[in-house]
Amino acid sequence: MIKKIILKFVLILTAGHAFAQTGGRSLVRVELGDYHGDMKKIQARSLDVAGVDLSKKQVDLIVDSSELKWLKTAGYRPVVVSVERFSAGPDSRYQNPEKVEAALKQFAALHPNLAQVKSIGKSLQGRDIWAIRMTQNVKVEDPSKPHVFFNAMHHAREVMTSEIGLDIVETLLGQYGKDPTITRWLNSYVVDVVPMFNVDGNQLVWSQDSMWRKNARGGYGVDINRNYPYAWNSCRGSSGSRYAQDYRGEGAASEPETQVMMNYVRSIRPVMSVSYHSYSEIVIYPYGCEGQRTETREVVEKIGKELASKLKKDDGRGTYTAGTAPELLYSVDGGDIDWLYAVAQVIPFVIEVNAVSQGFQPNYSRWRDQTVEAQRAGWKYILGRMDGSSLYGQIKDPQGRSVQQAKIRIRSADGVFSQELRVNPDGFFNVILNPGLYRVQIEATGYSSEPQVIKLGDLRTPFEPVLKKL
Ligand SMILES: [Zn+2]
């Protein structure tokens, strides 16, 4: 019994030490002479990269005194932006887990035919992670409606992101029946939003440390966005050190939050997704490891660049920049978008909202409304892209029954582009493509279709393949 008590006491002390270490840090800004080379060195030293200003080739770092010393001896000239104790809590008007749950439940109560709220699973500390599903006649399951997914706050300190998640919900539900475009989107698609994913981490932001990023594992925390199993720990895009801000965890998908997200994505099978982060004013598409491009980069990167072009910067000068993580920042492995793309067949993006001058926790009165309003152009573009060039339909056998393990093979007439997709078990598919001429063929257990040439324009195009028994 005494042993148990002592052990508990030691554990508390250890956890306390981890949090205590976070005192005495500074936010510093460093100009980089060789942006990519310097970012690699900074990453190898496991420094906490808060954000970047691409146009100025500047990086913001949160460092303790020994890291600050290292920066100076390594020849960087860090400018201290603020020396803060980073005590608990940003502006109290930002969200917390209880407020998000209450807000979502209230939205669903006000719009019972349009919105449904559910807990998609529990965090490490047993908190519910809430999602809202929005579509016309939400209580009737309609597998023909494709899903679009928005999530926010993988990283706890990025408090503006949950404001955006809730604004998506509020705008869609509030404008349904008034704005014809939004009405059509909710009639045609299902929009799923998880406004606050890292609920335990957010609780720590309020109770311990406003700069807390990871989940609540152990007192040190795991970076959930380095814990996804695709290419986990594969390209120095994460850290194996528990106290690093990008600690990848003990194993691939070791964290309950990662598992919850993966199960949820498998259940909704979104066509596209956005994960909201802050800050840097960039749009990131897969892959996170250097030199690796998506098989369908013509489609993915075009959408990413168009998405970035819709997002105005905080200073009103120009728009966001799009690229892969190694192009814009540094290598990332175990990030959500790589798993979403490679395993879950989603076209996924990360948006890092706000500029360096706003940081992780912008002045609420000055920036909250402006940021969520500026972000509307982005998520509306994603929903609008669902209406654009794409193929959709349902694959059935000649008797109208569903077939097993159907695959759809798409090749552009010039042979440059090719894609193979697993069709949903219920036979439905929705493939986003660029306009053009394609050769499309279906294969399934015991069945196949003749290759068919399809001319795809700017619109969503139905495709009814005829299957023959092999
Ligand atoms: Zn983040």
Characterization of the model:
The chain has twelve helices and 21 strands. The protein has helices spanning 2-20, 35-44, 65-73, 97-110, 160-175, 180-188, 199-207, 256-268, 297-310, 325-328, 336-342, 364-386, and strands at residues 25-31, 48-53, 58-63, 79-84, 115-122, 128-134, 147-152, 190-194, 270-278, 282-284, 321-323, 347-353, 390-394, 407-412, 418-422, 428-432, 436-444, 447-449, 452-456, 460-462, 467-469. The longest helix is centred in the C-terminal third of the chain and has 23 residues, at 364-386. The model is unreliable at 1-22 (pLDDT under 50). It is globular, with a radius of gyration of 23 Å. Strands 5-6-8-7-9-12-10-11 form an eight-stranded mixed sheet, sandwiched between helices. The protein is α+β, with helices and mostly antiparallel strands and 470 residues long. Zinc ion (ZN) is lined by residues 154-155, 158, 277.
